[in-house]
Amino acid sequence: MPNLKEITSKVQFHSNGADGHHFDHKHVHYEIDADGIVMLTFDRQGSSANIFDEDTFAELEDILSHIEGHAELSGVLIRSAKDKVFIAGADLKHMSKCVHGPATDREALKELITRGQAAFNRLANLAVPKVALIHGACLGGGLEMALACDWRVASLDKATKIGLPETQLGILPAWGGSTRLPKLIGLDSALGIAVPGKSAVGKKALALGMVDEVVHREQLEIAAKHWLKRGRRTTSTRAVNLPAVRDVVASIARKNTLKKTRGNYPAQERLIEVMKASLSVSHEQSLRNELDAVLDLAATNACRNLLNLFFLQEGAKKAPIEFEVTRDPVNIDQVAVIGAGVMGAGIAQWCAARGSHVIIKDLSLDAMAAGMNTVRKRFDEAVKRHIFTRGEAENLMENVTPVVDEVSLKSRQIVIEAAVEKMAVKQAIFKDLAETAGESTILATNTSALPIHEIAKVTPHPERVIGMHFFNPVHRMTLVEVIHTESTDPNVIADAVAFVRSIGKMPVVAKDSPGFIVNRILMPYLIEAGYLFSRHIGAHRIDKVMLDFGMPMGPLRLLDEVGLDVALHVARTLSEAMPGRFTTPEVIERLVELGDLGCKTGRGFYCYDKDSKKDGMLGVNPGALSACGNEPETGLESDSELRWRLSLLMSNEALLCLEEGVAASAGDIDLAMVMGTGYAPFLGGPLRHCETRGLSKTADQLHGFWESTGREIFKPAGYLRLHDSIFHRD
Ligand code: NAI
Predict the structure, then answer these.
(1) How close is the Cα of 592 to the center of ligand 1, in Å?
(2) Res 730: pLDDT
(3) Using an 8 Å Cβ cutoff, are 484 and 509 in contact?
(4) Same domain, 137 and 219
(5) Is residue 582 part of a domain?
(6) At the N or C end, where does the chain have fewer CB atoms within 10 A?
(7) Digit-coded pLDDT (tens) for 4-19
(8) Beta carbon of 71 within 6 Å of any ligand 1 atom
(9) H or E segment and range at residue 28
(10) 525: closest CA among 582, 565, 471?
(11) Residue 557 and residue 436 in one domain
């Protein structure tokens, strides 16, 4: 074993005034222990996360230049000092500047990619063994650096998530990740994780071969030193990477990917090519392939839009709200939920799972029992998915207290009403709350479309009333619309936003206006789909064109999922609020009369096998076909015409929302639609899509539909003729 003095005297360190074997940079520190092991610690100054930005690379390069060529060292360990992050990836702000900026920024992007590739090559080429000690998020560039090490040891902690999410931003791993991962774990597994941009927890990463061992966080260092002793890794060729097999693997992956993406996400297809090629070309050539691919992909609208969405999400998670407040938001963990149905039970479970104490109240023991069953089911699913251990789930379940009798809610900081969607019921509940709730309790309603000021007017405290619109299913949908009336106290809005963030959801603030943001924009599109069906445009054709457009589900299928009764109620609310613009198609009214309410009754636009474990969709419902009118729609021979007719309605309604100030910004509207409906993320949202297409072109097309159909729903928003741009206004 070399002695420390020997080593430190040989290795010329840039010591920053350190004591000879401990060296501090701003973001990456390193020390050498008595055994000659170099410990590199990523600890980005002033941040809870580590990322690769220019400074971090400069420091890493500096460290590498000091330890390169010193075969007498015993090895290198790389760890993070952060609680929940190993390394979260690249500096996306810089990346975004390169992607959005002028051509010269393409040079900057090229420089960024080649710099990362070179640094990780230097790390990989060190003569001594290297081990990554992975605790916390190890994503993108973080994993690419770990892949340049010989060995990887991960913690069993929930915070440890290992993956390559680049395709979700419209690019691909280009710091050697697309080259190294297939060699390490086989092309099939590498594509399985990197094409959809997924991440894996420690145990899954171990099963895939991405890491060599998983241990408790405290044991990472001991385990890593054990791996160091094995020396450098010798590469082995996986059978699945043999030429004949990899061709098949790549072609299956391509077919499956196209089935899902319908060609809208070029990064995923390109990644398959680059990863496949990495097994037959030199390491250097493969890195060039990565670089070429990123430069091409960065020029696509998909990449720009996906990066934009990333920053919109970051804003929704962190940015201050645009209201003047007079105090800091309250930390809320004492919650009551009124109504234990689909939404109430879902909200109660979600809040309890994040540590809130929740009283849940319904009218009868039966309703309460059904609600608590839902709560339990959700916890059971979370245990199955390794989100909680059984013990943790049981403890968290204790956070939910079911009640059916009158109970004081004075200790609650927030009450979320999720009873049936009837104004009289909601007003009665809010009248009661004036007595039962505390003096500062926030009074929230989960209404889908009822005017919140109407609910608020029955209480003496309208300033504490707010809408908090969760989406169904609560455990999957991240968006919550936070809706304020003219009377809502800005401090209450800030409290509600902070609460939504504290439970890991994404708030978008909206004004109390019919349908708020998401239902308002979705409804004309859904109504049009029903209208076209009633005029003999085939259900499968309607749904398919919108799947091709990039929606996660066709509009008729979505209507069945939402429930035709629920959709009808929202449509009526909107048509009352905007007479002449929205008219509900008769086919939906007729199906509701027949009791064909969609998936929940086994029949809507389609028939469903309710016992089926899979999708369960059978053919088109004959009852729906017989409810169609006699007049067929003409002039929609081309699928693209049909697609525009449906999709532009969302963009137009989004523009009307923007004009009316329903949301504070165009970005909020786009984010709400992507998060609340799955609106094609690669298009960036209905407003971004309109911008990309061109405002006057959109206006002309809508005008054409307005003229040919004579229906007000197509009347172009005034905004389209008044401005050239939505996002770059002077
Ligand atoms: P649901 O019908 O499944 O549940 C409503 C529950 O409220 C029932 O258990 C009922 O017994 C209870 N209830 C009725 N009056 C009550 C009262 N005075 N006190 C206590 N409990 C009472 O309804 P769901 O679907 O959960 O909807 C609840 C609210 O959430 C509605 O306002 C709805 O518009 C809204 N919403 C529904 C969504 C959905 O997809 N189901 C999505 C977003 C919002």
Answers:
(1) 19
(2) 41
(3) yes
(4) yes
(5) yes
(6) C
(7) 455 555 554 444 444 4
(8) no
(9) strand 28-32
(10) 582
(11) no
Most informative mutation of 337, 338, 343, 519 for ligand 1 (most atoms within 8 A of CB)? 343
CA separation, residue 602 to residues 193, 539, 563, 610, 619 (Å): 35, 17, 11, 6, 11
The set of residues, in sequence order, having a beta carbon less than 8 Å from that of 385 and lying 6+ positions away, is none
Looking at the structure, do residues 501 and 543 belong to the same domain, yes or no?
no
448 CB within 6 A, ligand 1: yes
Which of 349, 420, 454 is the pocket-test mutation for ligand 1 (most atoms within 8 Å of CB)? 420
Question: What does the pLDDT read at residue 102?
Answer: 63
CATH code assigned at 99: 3.90.226.10
Half-sphere exposure of 112 (CA within 13 A, CB side): 28
The pLDDT of residue 672 is above 90: yes
Ligand 1: atom nearest CA of 370 is 9
Work out how many domains the chain is built from and give that number. Answer: 3
Instruction: Tell me: do 70 and 210 sit in the same domain.
Output: yes
Do both 61 and 147 map to the same domain?
yes
CATH of the domain at 655: 1.10.1040.50
Single residue among 280, 299, 318 that ends a domain in this structure: 299
The predicted pLDDT at position 616 comes to 82
Task: Give the number of other CB atoms < 10 A from CB of residue 322.
Answer: 11
503 and 524 together in one domain: no
Q: Tell me, in angstroms, the distance from the centre of ligand 1 to residue 472's CA.
A: 12
**Cα–Cα nearest to 275, from 262, 259, 257, 263:** 257
| Distances from the Cα of 120 to the Cα of 12, 14, 230, angstroms | 21, 21, 21
Ligand 1 close to Cβ of residue 573 (< 6 A): no
User: Which one of 283-287, 317-321, 707-711 scores highest in mean pLDDT?
Assistant: 283-287
Positions marked catalytic: 469
Examine the domain organization and report whether 602 and 498 are in the same domain: no
Answer whether residue 163 is part of any domain. yes
CA of 447 to the centre of ligand 1 (A): 8
Domain with 389, as residue range(s), is 334-511
**Which residue's CA is the closest to the ligand 1 atom numbered 3?**
341
Q: Is the distance from the beta carbon of residue 339 to the nearest atom of ligand 1 less than 6 Å?
A: yes
Does the CB atom of residue 477 touch ligand 1 within 6 A?
no
Q: Higher model confidence: residue 338 or residue 615? A: 338
Atom of ligand 1 nearest to the CA of 421: 32
Instruction: Name the pTM for this structure.
Output: 0.92
Last residue in a domain, options 511, 546, 574:
511
Pocket flag, ligand 1, residue 668 (CB < 6 Å): no
Q: Cα–Cα distance between 125 and 127 in angstroms, integer?
A: 6
